[in-house]
Amino acid sequence: MNSILNVAKKLNLSEKQVADTLALLQEGATIPFIARYRKAATGGLDEDQIAKINEFYVYDVELNKRKEYVSEILKEKGLLTEELSKKLFLAETKQAVENIYEPFKIGKKTKATEAIALGLSKLAEDIMASSSESFNMFSEAKKYLNDKVQTVEFALEQTKFIIAQIVSQDIKVREYIKHQIYNYGVIETKYKKGAEDTNGVFEQYYDFNEKVSKIPNHRVLAITRGEEKKILSYTIVDFNLKKITYDLNEMFFKNKRTAKYINECIQDALDRLLIPSIIREIKTDLFERAEKEAITVFAENLEQMLLGPAIKNKRILAIDPAYVNGCKMAALAEDGKFLEKGIIFPHNHDEKQFIEAVKLVNIFIDKYAINLIVIGNGTASRETERFISKLLEARKKKIPNDNVKFGVVSEVGASVYSASKIAIEEFPDLAVEYRSAINIGRRFQDPLNELIKIDPKSIGVGQYQHDVNQKELSEQLKLKVNKAVNMVGVDL
């Protein structure tokens, strides 16, 4: 299995581009270095393309190792048919390999292995294979009676478990059922009685139904989170089990005398082995699809934040809004230099405090020739916006040429920065709230320069970012940070 060729096909690149890029990466060259200084070798690939080559190659190598492992295990057990081997070869994802392997992951003790240990495998094979109407399974079962198998009824009951396992391991059967459930099934979620759902976060999913084939990725992430928190039950229903049962009976029908018995085996296989397993497979597939898209979106969101326009040559009054504890203010020079701090209480329904707040904001504006007031978008943000808006309207009436503006900026991650080592080193004498206000103001002046001080995962790039693979998310976010820094540069 040629991983370089596979990657080239998936990314629509030449094998040479992929091979040369991988060679540079294996020599220790960084992605930004390759993108900037080795364009001739890569054919002009950018950072995103180089990162994809590396990501896809590592995945493909791991995928091939898993395929080889599963093939060897199945071969050792005498289960590796030509059809299974072909399915493994064509599997494009790790989950697809696991789905193929799943029905063969037999534990130390199952109903089928117990029946096999009783020596009933051949009876199961004969019952499934015989197309003769003269075949009598009761007579055949008598041949297997011994100290451990003392009655025909017991022999046939145990043999059912072997046949159920054979049915459940049939690749065509599993593919057919998965197709039916995915295309016709309905996701059903219910509220778990007694579960605690603070603020009704999952209320819309308390009694929810949607076609499996139509459900968007963000709902899959929300439902999965609700299930993990034991607030929601989550399954798939309405996939026409009667049709599936009928079709499987047609598939395994050999003669009328064994038809009822085979139907019972198929019913057991469906209820106990196939339906639960394939529903789990589909739920896993849905989550992996949603997770992959979410990580891509989170990384793109971060890139947009990092590459947001810098507001140059503006003196800023940054406000970290709050209610009872007061709004923390920080005046900043054009280059982000901290000038002075202050605190106001405009939201406590205290007229004296309100008047003092108006007075102090005006003092800061006049003292430092403030051009722009920047408000964090957290708690009390709306109220602070209204307060500042009215204050600036009043100033405009008194000073017609006054041109102070205000804006709102995301404060996600500001609290993380304020307690970080780098913030303490920058402002050892300031409380965390004032460091947070400074960060809010500076990220308006120069988003990239300020945001790189914060762990990318703490910037809050998506609603479900804590539900996805954290290692993969970190890698993708780190790539975006490196890309932005190499595009724009930062002040160290």
Automatic annotation (TrEMBL):
Residues 314-418 form the YqgF/RNase H-like domain. One of its GO terms (molecular function) is structural constituent of ribosome. This is RNA-binding transcriptional accessory protein. It comes from the Bacteria. InterPro entries: Ribos_protein_bS1-like (IPR050437), RNaseH-like_sf (IPR012337), Tex-like_central_region (IPR055179), Tex-like_dom_sf (IPR023323), Tex-like_HTH_dom_sf (IPR023319), Tex-like_N (IPR018974), Tex_YqgF (IPR032639), YqgF/RNaseH-like_dom (IPR006641). Pfam families: Tex_central_region, Tex_N, Tex_YqgF. It comes from Mycoplasma struthionis. Gene3D superfamilies: RuvA domain 2-like (1.10.10.650), Tex N-terminal region-like (1.10.3500.10), YqgF/RNase H-like domain (3.30.420.140). GO terms for biological process: nucleobase-containing compound metabolic process; translation.
